[in-house]
Amino acid sequence: MKKYHLPFIDLDKEEVWINRYIRQGWRMKDVNMFIYEFAPKETHAGLKENEVLPDENAFLIKCDVHKFDTEADFENYRTMFLDAGWKHVRGYRDSYVQYFERVSPYASEELFSDTASRSSRYLRLAKYWSYMLIPQLAVFFVSIDLMRNIVWNLLHLHELFYSPGLWELTGLPFWAAFLRETPSAFLFSGLPVLPYILLNALFVIVDAVCAGRSYQLYCKKRSRKI
């Protein structure tokens, strides 16, 4: 079964959304961008000795946020949680969000034992989005000048056509010269880079909103009890 879902910035809500299907008899198999894949608990491969039985509370998903400099550190991190009864099921060394499922009947129902550890996920998430935002902002400030040039070129479009007396021509000679120079005028106007400028502006907005929201959640949740 595949479900399409935009991941929540609030990891607690992300866990609730996934575990709704876990309690309905599914086990999370994979996460790929916005596609969440589930398999029935009784048929999904991977059950080993000491893993929980496939009942409605088995294989609950919890999330953490971490990035690692080395593969060895990443492996030690996964092993630490596996020893505590939580199996790493999705995430990479540099992907930040890591997904774990509860595979031991003796594991705690929470991935973290204290509020500070649980809330610090959001601080790391805020830092991640901030790191993403910095290069996007650098490109954005450069693109401000590009946008200014594009607007100027559009307001003075006739200056991008260099054929002498072009605008005094009429009829077929005008259209022949105009169409011949239109491709080069289009390139010199800067319009080909406009989609990239707008896309970069969208990334800046998304990164800024996600960084701000993550830090807001950190401040909100660090004072709560688990």
Question: If you had to describe this structure to a student in words, what would you say it looks like?
Answer:
The chain is α+β, with helices and mostly antiparallel strands and 226 residues long. It has 5 helices and 6 strands; from the N terminus they run E-H-E-E-E-H-E-E-H-H-H. The strands form 2 sheets. It has a 3-stranded antiparallel sheet, covered by helices on one side. The model has no long low-confidence stretch (mean pLDDT 86).
**What's the gyration radius in Å?**
27 Å
How much of the sequence is in beta strands? 15-25%
Q: Which sheet architecture does the biggest sheet show?
A: 3 strands, antiparallel
Helix and strand string, N-terminal first?
A: EHEEEHEEHHH
Helix content: 40-55%
Key structural traits:
three-stranded antiparallel beta sheet; alpha+beta; 50% helix
Lay out the secondary structure.
Blueprint: E1 2-4, H1 11-22, E2 26-32, E3 35-40, E4 61-66, H2 71-83, E5 86-90, E6 96-102, H3 115-155, H4 171-189, H5 194-221
Antiparallel strand pairs: 1-3, 2-3, 4-6, 5-6
